[in-house]
Amino acid sequence: MKSEEARHRERFLAVITAVILTAVFIFTMVVDPQLKQRRMLSQNLHQLQIKLTKMKGDLLIKDRIEKIYSQIEPLIATCDTEQQQISAFTRQLSQIYSKFNVKIRSVKILPVSDENFYRRLTIKIEMTGHIKDFLKFAIAVEGLTDPIRIEQFDLVAQQSKDNVRVSMVITKVVSEPKYS
Fold first, then answer.
1. 100 in Cβ contact with 137 (< 8 Å)
2. What is the pLDDT of residue 179?
3. Helix (H, G, I), strand (E, B) or coil at 41
4. Can you say whether residue 162 is alpha, beta or left, with left for phi > 0 and alpha for psi between -120 and 50 degrees?
5. Edge-to-edge strands, sheet with 163-175
């Protein structure tokens, strides 16, 4: 009986050993490579999700910039030549300062600076008159809906009371002809 029990134990141990060896073999040959591949695919998926999130952010920024540009474009859009743009700009300034009691000493057109998608027209004006008229002129220029700015404003007092000499650089932004 003992020998039969010993044989059953040996068979049982042999079967368990075979099952364990088979399980280890299956694990090392099938399951472990699959787990490694799944882990690698999971990492790749995570990296792709990060890249996709960055691309979505870039698209949101691009859309925001395009929206802002579409709002600004009507203000700066023109299909005129550079000379026509400068002429229109000087006429616009002339209409503004003609409303006030100022004397123009000189108007100097400075070189146009080309930026990425727009041009910056620059005019230097020197005038004399009462300080209140210059302040009204400056307020009128800054209050325009066009993209016009006073870049420099130099004020020099003269002999008579409240009369001053002003030198200012005024710029206007206009679109490049290829973008309009």
1. yes
2. 40
3. helix
4. left
5. 102-114, 118-130, 163-175, 148-157
Q: Which CATH superfamily is domain 82-179 in?
A: Ribosomal protein S6/Translation elongation factor EF1B (3.30.70.60)
**What are the per-10-residue average pLDDT scores of the chain (180 residues)?**
82 91 90 91 93 91 83 64 80 86 86 79 89 86 83 81 84 67
Cα dist. 83→24, 109, 114, 175 in Å? 85, 11, 14, 14
DSSP secondary structure letters along 60-93 = HHHHHHHHHHHHHHHHH-----HHHHHHHHHHHH
Q: Tokens representing 34?
A: 């699959």
Q: Taking the domains of the chain in order of start, what are their residue ranges?
A: 1-76, 82-179
Question: Is 0.70 topped by the overall pTM?
Answer: no
